[in-house]
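Task 17 of the worksheet. Students: predict the tertiary structure of the chain below and write it out as structure tokens. Keep your answer in the requested format; marks are given for formatting as well as content.
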Amino acid sequence: MQGVPVFRKNVFSRREGFGPFQGNSIPTPNPKQKFYKKTMNNETSSNLPNETFTWLKPGAWRKPCIVHVTMVANGRRPLFGILSHDGNKAVVEKTAIGWAIIDQQPRMLQLCPEIKILADKVMPDHHHIVLQVRRSMKRSIKEVVRGYMQGCKAEARKLGFEGNLYDGPPHYRVLTHKGQLQAMINYVYANAERAWLRKQNPNLFCLHRNTESCGLLFTSLGNHFLLDWPDKQIVEMSRNATEEQVQQRLQSALCAAENGAVTYTAAISKGEQIIARTLREQGFPLVVLLYDGFPAEGSPQERFYKPGGVYFEACSKGQLLLLEPSEQTFLAPEILNATEAALRSKAEAKHLQFTPLPASSLRYRFVALNEIGRCLVRADRVRYNWTEPAG
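Model answer:
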């Protein structure tokens, strides 16, 4: 293709890994989609502005930016390496093709000196790279990456590989907010360890449709034995709760968790997020209720879905269960009635006239999450003949 550089094998080779950072974090949104979409990670989500329009402007991809690129092997086959463990950490033993795609990177930097590689990681079936465009370029970053991929394909053919090396176009994530770069670099370098944890605990990372509990249906992921745990508590905090009220509830929740209770929460309000974060950091089990947190059934993302960020480690240890109520659950008569009663009570507490909300509204859904959690906790209290604790 005219104007697109094709990167041939360079005499220089190097080990992967630009940058000193390592650790865990979360992936960021796809710039081709809405920049902010409510994710499954209620505890760490934030209201980011929609900046999609910036990257649709002519020439935007030629200007200084930082982009995370993911290139997936054809059919998700392990063409680039084999995942293993050396006793201390997870490692990827690269194939000849895996080394070839690493050896293409110095050539890319020679042809495009405006680019700097901040991090990269070759996995068995995909390849991550974080690129910084330090000054405006004649070619767009997408053209540069496409040329890099063409060079990788050419090297794979020299090694005897036939067919398409990649599954399709790469995925781009533009990093624009404070903390995203460090988070993404951490995520890239932790990729092998995360993959190893998933491999050792496959059942904890499988999406289950139509999980039933107390007559209600959910999509779920994580440790399902937590549903059968006899001692449970619900954590719900008003958005207007004071710091003192949050700390008081936190101490009571910690006390119950230390005595064996599994905590149910939607982790929506600031107080709920603080309590969920503290419980998670101290290793106590959590059941988190989500709204629109999982990929749609049958979508391309469903097969390879995994929880992001702080939830990943908790899931790998069996300390987390994620529950997304089905539409049938949101519309169940007992949930409709309980949610309406809760909304009415909130309105009366503020001396406002109550107006019923449609079940499709976000306000209804968020309140319903707490009522669903309360239903799950209360059902077991009735089952084991317990009483609600005072306060």
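Marker's comment: Confidence is low (pLDDT under 50) at residues 1-41, 44-53, 381-391. The first helix runs from residue 96 to 111.
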